[in-house]
Amino acid sequence: MIAAALMALGAGVLVALSRQVNARLALGSSALGASLWNHATGLAALVVAGAALGAVGGAGLRPQGSLGAVPVWAWAGGPLGVVFVAAGAWCVARIGAGPTATLMIAGQMLGGAALDLAAGAAGTGWRLTGVGLILLGVAAARR
Amino acid sequence: METGGGTERRGGGWWPRTVALLAGGCLALMVLCNAEVGRQGGVLWASLAPHLTGSAAALLLVTLLGARWRAPGVPRWAFLGGLSGAATVMLTSLAATSALALAGTLALGLAGQAAFGRAADRWGWLGLPRRNTAARDDLGLALVLAGSGLILWGAR
After folding, report:
1. Which of A22, A36, A85, A128 to mutate to test the interface with B (most CBs of B within 10 A)?
2. Which of A120, B58, B67, B94 is close enough to A36 for a disulfide, judged by CB 3.0 to 4.6 Å?
3. What is the mean pLDDT of each run of 10 residues along chain A (143 residues)?
4. Distances (CA, A) of A124 to A118, A128, B107, B150
């Protein structure tokens, strides 16, 4: 349990670390340039990791099912990620990593709650209270 | 205000804040897309596919818009942000299968992200300037994290 908690915390730290490193790169190039490097090095790392796992008996780079069955809209994850990474690098240089993280988390949670509602999830009291607290937080962090 | 330039100095204006909020919304959509790819192709492809289409999209945008991608004089490590992003996927999927479940994993991840950002501002980590954080920023962060926790556990 403690190991899992550390991994979960670590995953969040890595998100912010990546944003900070990309902001540094964007200072010497551009936010979009940093996003390009981010995706290219991440792609290379995943290909190497996938191939290595395949070499020791894992599934490797081969998809488990059929990628042809992936709906067209789901391929938009990449371009959305380009916007997300470029925006992160751009915002950190302007308002700092703290407010950037706060507002990106707020946007992610509000967007996720909206998507859940659109998918027919019940708008429970807990969730609506959560949305209200986040909106208050955004208001507090404004300007 | 004790900081020299008053609110502007702390601020940076409302525009970057709006961009950060909207980009967070993009991330919610992205998670949905990548999960759908993962359902068909497995956990590696949930990350591989967006990195493939993302690399192509970024290359296209950089070319079309003429954005600077060369970065002379920037330390080598600054090119490695993508590694930490790729590793995130693995840690998240490992932790989510533990007793923490997805809600606990995501909530701790958000807390870790916010704590790093706060510390990076305070001590000026990784070549970026130090920033004074206002009490209002901490209040905003606490409210956003509390609200996120309620949404994540309320969804179960």
Report:
1. A36
2. B58
3. 90 96 97 98 94 86 90 96 97 96 96 89 86 95 73
4. 14, 6, 19, 10
A41, A18 Cβ separation under 8 angstroms: no
**B151 and B94 within one domain:** yes
On whether any CB of chain A is under 8 Å from the CB of B44, the answer is: yes
Backbone angles phi, psi at B79, to 5 degrees: -85, -5
Q: Are residues B105 and B151 in the same domain?
A: yes
Contact B7, A141 (CB under 8 A): no
Q: What ipTM was estimated for this complex?
A: 0.93
Domain total in chain A: 1
Q: Residue A93 sits in which domain range?
A: 2-140
Whether residue B76 is contained in a domain is answered as no
Give the residue numbers spanning the domain of B88. 84-156
Domain count, chain B: 2
Interchain CB contacts (distance < 8 Å): A and B = 470
